[in-house]
């Protein structure tokens, strides 16, 4: 449940970008919805000053850090040391008053600090005690990530706070429990806490790590060199400390006869939300977006409206942001809604024009898809298919100005001509380069509005 005071709540705004004109008989309406939160917990990417909290008021957050302690973390031995150092850096980043716990994960989950099924309250003493406890982390055992997540959920649920967040680090595949066990743990945690997931080295499964982050509305990334863990953990914790409002949902209302085709986040990453809808009253549904600080995200909404005659217009959808009300759990609106419209016209120029924002993000979603398809075909030995898909990815990255993805693609293919997508597969590709491309394939660039 989101619990917050007016002193630290971001202000939400909703902006809609679309071409509202449809040709005669046209039914599909597309819109990019930009949601912006300002005035919350972060300023320019840095954690805001503690003065946002009233005297005696504690930051309403709890964090669980899950560290892989399986036997593979000892190869090389520096990996475990880097994991301890990274966890220590994250603990140092906690604000006073935040509840926290450290979990050691193998084929079972163990409480490293504070223990006893409880959370510690961050201050100078508990931070130092937690870092001392990290010295007891040793590698040995298997990997059952679902058990780590279930323990994190139990510990985080014990705190009466707004923000519940996990940070999970693994270096291997989830080999000591079934995929069904992991899915059940994710289903149990969804809506209860958010979680960032990181894979260190190159022996973990990309789809497992990205699937964890996706299910729990967090971020996923690769840290190929363990020496980079401390900096990455610090950034993750800084971001978590900047969150001020949890359980934010994008509410979509549509009129009678209108069908929702899809709702997806398209910036800063592509994330499919359509199947996560929960009904919220007549013709309205909520799509989870997780917790927010100072930030902006873009969503692509596509609805199918009833056919109408030339000159007619209608409200195709209304988009708003809501959180559970602290008192009774009913929805509380955050800011004014955005309106998606449909107008039928015989002006061909108007009705056939594609809105730049819609076109851009349609391309970004395709970019993520063809990268994943290309890498799959490459692993399967279909070199012609892989070349075609990755060539299309290079073309899309070039057109959209996605320079970061273009650089990652250039480590997997030799680019002959980017505008046409002409490429050759590299004979040898480092595992880290291929996994980095796959892990970051859903990262997008914002369209210039």
Care to give the gist of this entry?
The chain has helices at 78-93, 124-133, 145-157, 179-189, 206-215, 229-241, 348-352, 356-379, 383-400, 403-409, 431-439, and strands spanning 11-17, 21-22, 28-38, 42-43, 46-47, 61-68, 99-105, 109-113, 120-121, 163-170, 194-200, 220-223, 245-253, 259-267, 271-272, 278-279, 284-292, 295-304, 313-324, 331-333, 338-344, 413-417, 422-425. It has eleven helices and 23 strands.
Description:
- The chain has 449 residues and is α+β, with helices and mostly antiparallel strands.
- The protein is built from eleven helices and 23 strands.
- It is globular and about 75 Å long.
- Residues 1-7 and 41-58 have low confidence and may be disordered.
Architecture blueprint of SSEs:
Elements: E1 11-17, E2 21-22, E3 28-38, E4 42-43, E5 46-47, E6 61-68, H1 78-93, E7 99-105, E8 109-113, E9 120-121, H2 124-133, H3 145-157, E10 163-170, H4 179-189, E11 194-200, H5 206-215, E12 220-223, H6 229-241, E13 245-253, E14 259-267, E15 271-272, E16 278-279, E17 284-292, E18 295-304, E19 313-324, E20 331-333, E21 338-344, H7 348-352, H8 356-379, H9 383-400, H10 403-409, E22 413-417, E23 422-425, H11 431-439
Parallel strand pairs: 2-21, 6-7, 6-10, 10-11, 11-12
Antiparallel strand pairs: 1-3, 3-18, 4-5, 7-8, 7-9, 13-17, 13-19, 14-15, 14-18, 16-17, 19-20, 19-21, 22-23
